[in-house]
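Title: Prediction job returns without error message
Component: structure pipeline
Severity: low
Priority: P3
Assignee: unassigned

Description:
Job completed but the reporter wants confirmation the result is attached to the right record. Sequence as submitted:
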Amino acid sequence: MNPRPHSVDLTINSTLHVPFDIPVRIDPLTLSLGSVHGSSNSPFAQVYIPGTTVGGTAVLGVQNQTTQLNNQQWLEYVRSMIFQETVTMSATARVNAFLGKLKSNVVFNKEIIQKGMNSFSGFSIQGPQILFPPADNGTNFIATVSLPNPSVMTLEIGTVVLDLKISGDIIGNATLKDLILKPGNQSSPLYGILNLERIKSNIGTIIKAQSEALENGHLLIDSVVKLVTYDGVEVPYYTEAMHNLTMTAELALAELGLDTLGGMLKGNDIGSLFSSQLRRADGSVRSHI
């Protein structure tokens, strides 16, 4: 949480089981967290856990601890979490434990296998609408995106700026505001500005490249991460980790209401081309304004 250029607020909880009823006192410890397959053995962060006395089962950890980052190692870990299906994190520490007057130096070294986000496989854009006229700030496209997060990790990302592409051509941009990736399917509103003239000038290429998708009543659109900010400040490790992330979604022509767009573009058969695909997908032509 609270991502800054060189720090985040970390919350970590771990369950410790002591197989007897005698209380065990544990000194404060420093837990080093790293990526097993990173470019170095350096941790991406160190978390400071206060001393405590435990007996039986206890939960050790910290809540929202502001933690300085090794940016390069954190970048590699975050990139792995976003692009891979599984990620292995290392957790190491040395701690003094006391059983009565007996002292023992305990070495904790564990590899934790986590589910990654797998490039947000299953990403979708739902309820797309073209606004005509556009909003005062230029927004002329709104929708809701679904970002599946199969991991157990919650990441506060911030504001994400995306390039929107159709058949490799940038046709606008969009913004996801105050994005927090929680475990499960995360829905977030998307606000975009489409360059309708750009779409108009490339309509022939689009129809040729996406003939199969259009025949099935869909238009394929790519969302490519361009910039990530938090409180107006760029978060460099998130920008770099995700800048190659391309998420492809199918937009249903009937739902999008491309007949409205077709009406705007009439005069060069563009509207009739889209409308014919819309009729093929839906059996009728509907307007969404």
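Comment from assignee: result matches the submitted record. The two ends are 38 Å apart (CA to CA).
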